[in-house]
């Protein structure tokens, strides 16, 4: 028994943790954003090395967060894991491939005698920074648009069609979140570079890029919000059946003022971060980071805590997944609950190590003195 919580409360507890990991993952996309702007911000090899080494100190944190996100889905909501990761496997394999390219690139870009050359690995980083983030955005957008699966009485997954998740690319509305995440990652990267790289020329380029990417982020993010708040949602009725209801995702927020408040605070912080970045302020990343975490957390949390299916099926409404029919057993969630108490200590350790790494800002001189280079 985990602090006297019953099964329904544990399911909500773990959905909130899952949502928090999604928020933290969105913040860690600043690494991908920086990779996507590599050839825009760097005009020579020295500047390129400066940017890559700045990101190289943090890329493993983002990779670890992605693994934790998938691990939480597997442990707490195994039916979702088997349905999405097992059914829509082509899109998830592409995402995994993009992140493998990232890991290989940081490891081998400066290895002596590498066969592909530094330029190839830099293109791999660019691919991860744009395509990897876009595909994750499209995959998460299916939480609102629905996916192409059915479940039988034994919860065996049947995916309709051979595209195996790639059919989400045929729905242009899914692109809204994909592009929003790309431009969010880019403004987060700009904020991070302003805080971490102490070179005047690169700083000037960052500020110029910031405004353009911020405007595009707001365009796609507001478009995504308008779409989900006005579309038909997948309502979970009192008898656990699923039906369509217009404005459902907006009603989820209105009926849970706490989540709506968290979301609005997150949006406000993001706007403050955008303004600070426009002014070239070194602390912009903190407002942007916290704003992105809170906004994504609230959006994801509203799916599970609200009266909706968090992974709907548009070919068979009754196959849609909710936090109640897709979760692990009471015993599993309870045991994992005690493990989750270690999360604050892990976060504290990450913050401590991060502050140590960023105590000295990165310059061309400091880079030349490093014994290890990415």
Automatic annotation (TrEMBL):
GO cellular component terms attached to this protein's record: cytochrome complex; plasma membrane
Membrane protein topology class: Multi-pass membrane protein
Native species: Helicobacter apodemus
Membrane-spanning residues: 12-31, 61-81, 87-108, 120-144, 175-194, 206-229, 249-278, 285-310, 330-354
Keyword Nucleus: no
Database matches in InterPro entries: Cyt-d_oxidase_su2 (IPR003317)
Protein name in the entry: Cytochrome d ubiquinol oxidase subunit II
The keyword Transmembrane helix appears for this protein: yes
Localization of this protein: Cell membrane
Pfam families the UniProt entry points to: Cyt_bd_oxida_II (PF02322)
Family: Belongs to the cytochrome ubiquinol oxidase subunit 2 family.
First-listed, main subcellular location of the protein, grouped into a coarse class: membrane
GO biological process: aerobic electron transport chain
Gene: cydB
Keyword annotations of the record: Cell membrane, Electron transport, Heme, Iron, Membrane, Metal-binding, Transmembrane, Transmembrane helix, Transport
GO MF, one example: oxidoreductase activity, acting on diphenols and related substances as donors, oxygen as acceptor
């Amino acid at each position: 028994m985990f602090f006297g919580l019953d099964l329904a409360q544990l399911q909500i507890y773990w959905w909130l943790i899952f949502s928090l990991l999604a928020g933290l993952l969105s913040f860690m996309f600043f690494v991908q954003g920086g990779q996507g702007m590599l050839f825009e911000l760097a005009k020579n090899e020295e500047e390129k090395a400066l940017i890559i080494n700045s990101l190289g100190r943090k890329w493993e944190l983002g990779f670890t967060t992605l693994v934790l996100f998938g691990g939480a889905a597997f442990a707490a909501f195994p039916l979702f894991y088997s349905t999405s990761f097992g059914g829509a496997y082509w899109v998830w394999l592409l995402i995994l491939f993009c992140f493998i390219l990232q890991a290989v690139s940081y490891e081998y870009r400066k290895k002596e005698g590498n066969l592909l050359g530094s330029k190839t690995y830099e293109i791999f980083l660019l691919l991860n920074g744009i395509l990897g983030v876009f595909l994750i955005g499209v995959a998460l957008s299916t939480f609102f648009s629905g996916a192409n699966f059915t479940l039988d009485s034994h919860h065996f997954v049947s995916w309709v069609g051979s595209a195996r998740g790639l059919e989400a690319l045929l729905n242009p509305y899914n692109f809204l979140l994909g592009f929003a995440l790309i431009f969010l990652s880019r403004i987060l990267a700009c904020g991070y570079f302003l805080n971490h790289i102490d070179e005047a020329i690169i700083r000037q380029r960052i500020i110029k890029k910031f405004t353009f990417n911020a405007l595009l982020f707001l365009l796609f993010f507001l478009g995504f919000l308008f779409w989900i708040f006005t579309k038909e949602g997948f309502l979970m009725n009192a008898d656990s059946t699923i039906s369509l209801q217009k404005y459902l995702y907006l009603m989820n927020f209105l009926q849970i003022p706490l989540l709506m408040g968290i979301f609005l605070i997150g949006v406000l912080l993001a706007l403050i971060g955008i303004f600070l970045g426009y002014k070239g302020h070194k602390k912009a990343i903190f407002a942007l980071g916290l704003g992105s975490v809170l906004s994504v957390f609230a959006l994801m949390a509203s799916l599970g805590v609200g009266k909706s299916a968090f992974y709907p099926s548009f070919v068979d409404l009754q196959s849609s997944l909710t936090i109640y029919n897709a979760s692990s057993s009471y015993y599993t969630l309870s045991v994992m609950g005690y493990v989750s108490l270690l999360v604050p200590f892990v976060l504290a350790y990450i913050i401590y190590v991060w502050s140590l790494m960023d105590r000295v800002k990165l310059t061309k001189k400091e880079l030349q003195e490093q014994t290890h280079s990415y």
